[in-house]
Amino acid sequence: MEDQTSSKNPDQTEKPTNEKPPGVNRYALQCSIVASIVSIIFGYDTGVMSGAMVFIEEDLKTNEVQIEVLTGILNLCALFGSLLAGRTSDIIGRRYTIVLASILFMLGSILMGWGPSYPVLLTGRCTAGLGVGFALMVAPVYSAEIATASHRGLLASLPHLCISIGILLGYLVNYFFSKLPMHIGWRLMLGIAAIPSLVLALGILKMPESPRWLILQGRLGEGKRILKLVSNSPEEAEIRFRDIKTAAGIDENCEDEVVKMENKKTHGEGVWKELILRPTPAVRRVLLTALGIHFFQHATGIEAVLLYGPKIFKKAGITAKSKLFLVTIGVGIMKTTFIFTATFLLDKVGRRKLLLTSVGGMIGALTMLGFGLTMAQNSGGKLVWALVLSIVSAYSFVAFFSVGLGPITWVYSSEVFPLKLRAQGASLGVAVNRVMNATVSMSFLSLSRAITTGGAFFMFAGVAAVAWNFFFFLMPETKGKSLEEIEKLFQRDGDNKTKGENGAV
Prior knowledge:
Elements: H1 26-59, H2 64-92, H3 94-114, H4 118-146, H5 152-177, H6 182-191, H7 194-203, H8 211-216, H9 220-230, H10 234-247, H11 271-277, H12 281-299, H13 302-316, H14 321-345, H15 351-378, H16 384-403, H17 405-415, H18 422-451, H19 453-474, H20 483-489
Helix pairs in contact: 1-3, 1-4, 1-5, 1-6, 1-7, 1-13, 2-3, 2-4, 2-18, 3-4, 3-6, 3-7, 4-5, 4-17, 4-18, 5-6, 5-14, 5-17, 9-10, 12-17, 12-18, 12-19, 13-14, 13-16, 13-18, 14-16, 15-16, 15-19, 18-19
């Protein structure tokens, strides 16, 4: 049953052409924006580290390996955070999980801002990484669970938009704080993030809980009241309420305020068995698709440009620090602009078309970036056209990534899992995402030394070509579908015959 249709006839799903589609619910939009602020803090940490590492190398006398570890440890700790986040959000709810993420960010920022030595800096970075794991899992899931089907792409993509805004803010802070004395500048860059973390931890308490989580706990009255606030009409709220009750295993005609969920697993018990050990064929397809899109999001090299932008542009021929930071700010502007554009295209163009176009453009941009950097390095940075080609190609790569693969990864993986598996399924996706992020961020400098910087981007172009084929053959369109309907997209006619068997995906 669709969120926006009252007809049960599958042949009458199209609306009259003169009927205006409902606008986005303002209360749901406000809730998603507040929940996504935690992503701004994460994005800021990513962006500001690209500049702070330049000064940390000088101030703390660190080497390249230590810098790689410092940048990558955030994602390794985020891996553990994401694995804990799914079960945590099933137990304490989506809202309090966001509060926990904010507190971890605050503690990590304080330690990094103090940073008297490399070990303390590393400890702060790891603490913030745990917060990253929680934030990346819970913000998209929360946004997807309160959104209507017609605007879920917009709301679920807000966390990634906020990451980009945070990255841009980090780049701007790099530029302005770089003029301060070295031992003060980088510490302020990293420590200032503690302030918004504290504000968010307090402000998030005024947000409502996810209605789907409440209903899964048997708290039907609370869930229904929140659905009325985040839906466009009482009729739509009632349709969503019935669909969620059915997905949670509750009689759709039940109108009790609270239902005792006897013999039902409401806190994520047994989910790993259903996801990993004994998945149904449909769940196996969902898992492959969700983990695959998270894998390719970072395996195509975006973190190399975002985190090592100043070093890459230095290889291309820019030597002055102020100019390096200015060019890097351009990367942040491109990323934010195109993700903002994507938020309005996701529910109009659809996830699949936008994703295939995005990855196709990335293949071309990465190939040209590899060529430009190869020519620039071979000439010792003296070829102006190679420098210009490298900058334009890097900007194009970020633009194509940001209009598709960047936001769609979080939207898609937050909406494809069934209700009972959603939180921990999403956390597994985030774990893969952080592993690949850490792999790229901790190996890029070493990889560049082994096969040259240009060669590294040629390799990323090859990975992007594999990704395009993966998405083309395995990813169905989810635009306009309710979360309960999306489950059916991954089912096949023969699934009932093979239930309990290890059939092919």
